[in-house]
Design brief:
heterodimer; A: about 160 residues; alpha+beta; five-stranded antiparallel β-sheet; about 20% helix; about 35% strand; B: about 160 residues; 5 helices; 5 strands
Chain lengths: ~160, ~160
């Protein structure tokens, strides 16, 4: 784990520590198995094309899980994620596999965020963030917001 | 292009529900989920570490209740229902809103109630589109609502 973040450490505009991700066809199958989301859009080439996309795409829910990962890693063990929402704005395509274990070169994504608001409500020191995922072109294919309660140094 | 005009059978689906469905949160399921996300946080991966943490057990990453438990296949049944009621066949996940109200960890038993709270006919960049919002409420074995998820899917 990274070191603990405190409410006093952040200001409006503070960057959420970016998180780098890649996705491969193998990882999409792994996600399907772990979650029970067996929508063929994410592993069957023809099915995906018939739906009008170029091929199997990343699961929206995997991208949302990346954003949760971004936030929980940043807020640390004593932080508590209050809410998170996101919208899927663009298609993301996985890298294909070159060997049993190694993917071809391809897209890399960055999960990022920025603090938009901070306030104390009763006992809770809350930070709100805008969060997003950028593809290799810098396009934001997923955007959202999150709020977390952080520990305070003054308590 | 024009907005999608809702059929009566689509309008009648608003308020319909599935469940509550009971799910037990298992250690192996949490670990497989964390690995699939690529999240190496020891609270979600390492039973010994998590047992010695403030939580005393392996914890589920926020949002774990959502796909591995429900809606999963259950929401795909709802997608089929919406299509049978007249919505176009193309389907994409539009987004999600999560409220995390109480931590979820190994051993918890969650009751998921899945409810269609809204169906709208709109015009989007995909063309005439049916936008369905599903709310899932997860209540734990102590009777506390642990999480609420609102999921939007698009049929176009």
């Amino acid at each position: 784990m990274t070191k603990q973040l405190y409410y006093e450490d952040v200001d409006i505009g503070t960057e959420v520590t970016p998180l780098k991700k890649i996705a491969t066809t193998r990882m999409l199958v792994q996600w399907a198995g772990a979650t029970g989301d067996f929508n063929p859009l994410h592993y069957e080439e023809d099915f995906a094309r018939n739906l009008g996309v170029e091929g199997p795409i990343l699961h929206g829910a995997l991208k949302r899980a990346w954003l949760v990962n971004l936030m929980t890693e940043w807020i640390g063990e004593k932080g508590r994620l209050k809410n998170l929402s996101c919208r899927y704005r663009g298609m993301d395509y996985p890298r294909k596999m070159k060997t049993f274990t190694e993917p071809h070169d391809g897209e890399t994504w960055w999960c990022k965020g920025k603090v938009t608001k901070k306030y104390v409500a009763g006992e809770a020191s809350v930070v709100e963030c805008s969060i997003w995922i950028e593809n290799g072109m810098g396009d934001k294919t997923t955007t959202g917001t999150a709020a977390a309660v952080l520990p305070s140094k003054s308590k | 292009m024009a907005e999608f005009v809702l059929t009566d059978s689509l309008k009648q689906l608003i308020g319909s529900s599935i469940g509550p469905i009971l799910y037990k949160v298992e250690e192996g399921a949490i670990q497989r989920y964390a690995k699939a996300v690529g999240d190496s946080n020891p609270l979600y991966n390492n039973i010994e570490y998590a047992s010695n943490s403030q939580w005393g057990r392996l914890m589920a990453p926020p949002g774990f209740a959502g796909w591995p438990l429900a809606p999963g296949q259950d929401i795909l049944h709802l997608v089929d229902k919406v299509i049978s009621a007249g919505a176009p066949r193309g389907n994409l996940d539009g987004g999600v809103e999560f409220e995390f109200l109480s931590p979820i960890g190994a051993g918890d038993v969650l009751a998921a109630l899945i409810r269609i709270i809204n169906i709208e006919g709109l015009e989007t960049k995909l063309g005439p589109t049916v936008v369905t919002t599903v709310e899932v409420t997860y209540t734990n074995q102590r009777g506390a609502v642990a999480m609420i998820a609102r999921i939007t899917f698009l049929n176009f």
